[in-house]
């Protein structure tokens, strides 16, 4: 967004007037100032009894915040967006500019507007979903009515020119090539794939294709060349089923089929575009969520743990059962253990949610077992856990230290003392803070 010169100028003017400290004081939030330009407060974004909200400045003197309780962080515009519920960064800037009598551009940038190219592609793929495709999807736990509701489709194999003709009739051929629905030879990039549209506000904002059967009869050897999943060649701006992030409870899945598997049960879920698909800009979308369950594939447990930490004390980790195999995922869980029955799967997911661990509890559980006389061998791993726990509330922190004491055999008092000693004073980008005093063990 800040590549727009007009918006960048507005943001700079607003920073001279609107600060995080001013926003908090206008809300009646008490700030506890510390040396070095730092401040602590009770987080205005969630309920807490011990201050875990930090205000600090980075190297360029830009004021930033970070809450170690709920995981939210950013600058003053991110804070205002979270507090007031503006849909995006531009809307936040415009609202603040109007409030502080700063002129803003009359037209919003076109970034993020759903192009009609994707809506046309969605309609085309829906019209070409053959019986063989429906049978395959039904075998994956997605019956025809569900497929229709979510606008799933199919791109005929062989790079048919029919989709190109649709765009030529509408005068959108150039746009289709730019977005990447058609390749340089003007062939359909998704040929031979099931197509999952990501829809928001009644429009398609992204598309993903999956090979129908990597070892099946409906796809030739030539057409099987390429990745199992294929995305459009542009950055993802939205999670799959993004509105689910505003629910009180949500499951974050690794991919679209996994998210659809959870949605079959009626439990709110959204999906990443792969285990590497998390982006910082997504965090704000979970501003109203009280509990975020991260459920990536079984071979991505480390990534699940790291992602759950992004949500602070709200984060939990669901690990698919071991009997699904090393790469077991939620769709496998629906199809195998639950035998495609959404009610059975709902019970399984519900039980997994109840039994899920915080990312730090899982991290402690997965520490390697070593003899007590050789505990120094895992000192670095233990220090990483302690550094993360240090800024959190005493009850949350010490309940995890008890788990760590059980795991290692070290006295709780030793771990509490070590927690303060190893706490990383760096918040981000050079900002510093002192860890809160630990209670007596």
Molecular structure report:
The protein is of the alpha+beta class and 441 residues long. The chain folds into four domains: 5-99, Zinc finger, CHC2-typedomain (DNA Primase, Chain A), CATH 3.90.580; 116-231, DNA primase, catalytic core, N-terminal domain (DNA primase DNAg catalytic core, N-terminal domain), CATH 3.90.980.10; 242-361, Dna Topoisomerase Vi A Subunit, Chain: A, domain 2 (3-Layer(aba) Sandwich); 370-422, no CATH class. It contains 18 helices and 13 strands. The strands form three sheets. The protein has a five-stranded antiparallel β-sheet, with helices on one face. The protein has a four-stranded antiparallel β-sheet with strand order 6-7-8-9, covered by helices on one side. A hairpin with a 3-residue loop joins strand 1 (32-34) and strand 2. Helix 1 crosses helix 4 (89-99) and helix 3 (76-84) packs across helix 4 (89-99). The longest helix is centred in the C-terminal third of the chain and has 15 residues, at 394-408. The protein is globular and about 70 Å long. The two termini are 48 Å apart. The model is unreliable at 107-114, 214-224 and 424-441 (pLDDT under 50).
Under the CATH scheme, the architecture of the largest domain is 3-Layer(aba) Sandwich
End-to-end separation in angstroms reads 48 Å
Estimated helix fraction: 25-40%
Name of the CATH class of the largest domain: Alpha Beta
Shape, per Cα inertia axes: globular
Compute the CA-based radius of gyration: 25 Å
Assembly type of the chains comes to single chain
Q: What number of domains?
A: 4
User: What is the averaged pLDDT score?
Assistant: 86
Q: Please indicate the percent range of residues in DSSP E strands (runs of 2 or more).
A: 5-15%
Strand order of the largest sheet: 1-2-3-4-5
Largest sheet composition: 5 strands, antiparallel
Number of E-type strands: 13
Low-pLDDT parts are 107-114, 214-224, 424-441
- Class based on secondary structure composition and strand pairing: alpha+beta
In CATH terms, what is the fold-level topology of the largest domain? Dna Topoisomerase Vi A Subunit, Chain: A, domain 2
Count of separate DSSP helical elements: 18
């Amino acid at each position: 967004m800040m590549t727009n010169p007009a918006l960048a100028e507005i943001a700079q003017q607003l920073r001279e007037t609107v600060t995080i400290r001013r926003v908090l004081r206008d809300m009646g939030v008490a700030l506890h100032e510390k040396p070095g330009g730092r401040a602590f407060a009770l987080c205005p974004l969630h309920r807490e009894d011990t201050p875990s909200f930090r205000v600090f400045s980075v190297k360029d003197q830009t004021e930033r915040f970070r809450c170690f309780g709920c995981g939210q962080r950013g600058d003053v515009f991110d804070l205002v967006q979270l507090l007031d519920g503006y849909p995006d960064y531009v809307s936040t800037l415009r609202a603040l500019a109007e409030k502080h009598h700063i002129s803003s551009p009359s037209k919003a940038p076109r970034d993020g507007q759903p192009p009609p190219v994707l809506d046309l592609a969605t309609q085309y793929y829906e019209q070409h979903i053959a019986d063989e495709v429906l049978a395959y999807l039904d075998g994956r736990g997605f019956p025809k009515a569900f497929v229709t509701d979510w606008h799933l489709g199919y791109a005929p194999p062989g790079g048919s020119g029919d989709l190109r003709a649709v765009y030529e009739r509408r005068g959108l051929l150039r746009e289709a090539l730019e977005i990447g629905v058609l390749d340089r030879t003007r062939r359909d990039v998704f040929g031979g794939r099931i197509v999952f549209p990501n829809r928001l506000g009644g429009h398609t904002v992204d598309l993903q294709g999956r090979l129908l059967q990597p070892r099946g009869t409906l796809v030739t050897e030539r057409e099987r060349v390429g990745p199992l999943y294929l995305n459009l060649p542009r950055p993802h701006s939205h999670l799959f089923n993004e509105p689910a992030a505003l629910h009180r409870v949500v499951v974050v899945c690794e991919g679209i089929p996994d998210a659809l598997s959870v949605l079959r049960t009626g439990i709110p879920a959204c999906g990443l575009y792969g285990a590497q698909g998390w982006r910082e800009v997504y965090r704000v979308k979970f501003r109203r969520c009280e509990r975020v369950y991260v459920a990536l594939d079984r071979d991505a447990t480390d990534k699940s743990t790291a992602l759950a930490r992004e949500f602070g004390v709200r984060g939990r980790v669901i690990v698919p059962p071991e009997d699904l195999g090393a790469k077991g995922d939620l769709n496998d869980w629906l199809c195998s253990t639950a035998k495609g029955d959404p009610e059975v799967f709902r019970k399984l997911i519900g039980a997994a949610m109840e039994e899920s661990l915080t990312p730090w509890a899982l991290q402690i559980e997965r520490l390697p077992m070593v003899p007590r006389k050789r505990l120094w061998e895992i000192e670095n791993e233990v220090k990483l856990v302690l550094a993360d726990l240090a800024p959190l509330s005493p009850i949350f922190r010490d309940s995890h230290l008890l788990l760590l004491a059980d795991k290692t055999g070290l006295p709780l008092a030793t771990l509490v003392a070590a927690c303060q000693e190893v706490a990383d004073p760096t918040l981000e980008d050079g900002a510093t803070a002192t860890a809160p005093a630990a209670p007596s063990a």
